[in-house]
Amino acid sequence: DFCPWSDPEWRSSHVPNVAGNDDVLHLPVEVYEGVMKDLNKVGFKGGIIYSAFSEPFLYKHLEEVIKISKEQCPESRIEVVTNGDFLTIDKLNTFFEAGLTRMDVSVYDGPDKVKPFEDLRIEAGLNKEQFHIRERWYAPDEHFGIGALSNRAGANIMPEINVNEIHTALKRKCFYPFYQLIVDFDGAVLLCNHDWDKRLTMGNVKETSILDIWNSKKYKEVRGNLANANRNHSPCNRCDANGMMMGGEFVSKWKEYYEG
C-alpha cells in the first residue's frame, strides 16, 4: 500500500516546517519511481494500492504514479481506495486510461449516496469489479460495515462496540508482514496498515531499496515473532487484529527462503 499524501493538520505536530511547504506532504515522484523500478527487477505482479491513512485524490501526482506503476509493473493490480468526495467522470476516465485497474469507493453517508457513484460507473463504462462501492454507512454496533474491525494497534479504542485497548499482548499469529507493507508519504516503510500511530518504521525508501528493506534482518525478526504467535513487541503488543485472515501461504515460503 502507498499513502502518498498526508493531511497537514495531522502532520503539523510531527513534521517540521509544514506551514507554507505543501511539497513535504507529497511523496516525491522520483522516489516513487525508484520503488517501482526496484519492483520491476523482481517481476512484481502483486497489488499496488493507494490508500492507508489519507485520501489519495489529494495527492497531486496520482495520475503520474499510476502511469509509472503500469509501465514498470504492467501485470500488477493497481487500485485506489477513496471516499469519492473529489471523484468526477473526467478523473475517473483519466486514472483508468493511465493504468488503474480498480477503484474502491467507501460511501459513509447512507445508501441514498450510492446512485451518483453508480451513474459515474455506468457513464465510464466500468463493471462492478473495476468500480466497487464499499458500504460504510452502518451503525457502530454493526462495525460500520467492516467485517473485522480492529483497534488499529491501540490507536482506535471504542469500548462501546467492544473494540478495546490491549494491556497484555495476544498469543496470536499474524501474517501481514509476510505479504504486504505500507510506504508512507515521507518514504517511511511501515509494518502494516493497522499501525495507525506509525510506531514501527522498517526503513525508508528515500535511503534504502524497497527490496533491501523487505529482506532485512529487522523484517526477519518480526516475521519470526509473528509466525510463532509472539506479539511482545511494539506495535503488535497493543494490536487485536486477527492477522490470519489471509497470507498464510506466504509463511512457509519465507521459512524456506530463510532456511535455504
TrEMBL record:
SUPFAM superfamilies: Radical SAM enzymes
InterPro entries: 4Fe4S-binding_SPASM_dom, Aldolase_TIM, Radical_SAM_PqqE_MftC-like, rSAM_sf
Annotated coiled-coil segments of the chain: none
Pfam families: SPASM
CDD domains given in the database record: Radical_SAM (cd01335), SPASM (cd21109)
Annotated 4Fe4S-binding SPASM domain residues: 174-240
Database matches in NCBIfam families: rSAM_more_4Fe4S
Annotated protein name in UniProt: 4Fe4S-binding SPASM domain-containing protein
Organism expressing this protein natively: marine metagenome
